Amino acid sequence: MFEFLLALTFWPALLFGVFCLALFTAAYQESIQIAILATIISGLVAWLAFDANIFTGIAEKPFTVLFYAVLYLAIGAGWSIWKWYRRISSPKAKKHLRLVKETYLRDRKPGEDPDGWTDSYMLDSAYKPGRNKDKISSWIVLWPLSVLMYFFGTFLSDVIGRIYDSLAGIYNRLTLNAAQGD
Fold first, then answer.
1. 90-99 long-range CB contacts below 8 Å, 24 or more apart?
2. Is the pTM of this model over 0.85?
3. pLDDT per residue over 25-45, tens digit each?
4. Labelling 1: which of 51, 64, 65, 153 has CA 20 to 30 A away?
């Protein structure tokens, strides 16, 4: 009897685990294609193997589902704006953007748009929103995982780095004092 219960729970649990792993991979890679593919495959397997049809829930309460989908995507859009702001506010990005703008303004022909530097061939594609649709879409659709990865990756690294820098100053002063014989 125990084997039967194990078999009943093993495959759905395995499917859920693989789906979660695929979504975390998609969020880490910032790739919407991986997320879409994982969702479609997992949905089909769940429907065919376990008769789990999500569309019946959608059909029963379409306006509730629509409300929560719009809310979810609105939060994701806000998160993507924050991520893009962080991306273009880095010292490396600011230096690159300033250089491209100065070069464009210096070399532009009379009558050219002063804001045309944003379309310049010199601008690195990493800082062109149109060249980062996949990345930005993944931030919107996978925002809960993106937030987690930001918190456990970037944010904690920044905090730990600042703590280390503060402590390094204290350790350096202690070392200097010890070397002076105080």
1. 93/126, 93/127, 96/123, 96/124, 96/127, 97/123, 97/127
2. no
3. 888 888 888 888 887 887 777
4. 51
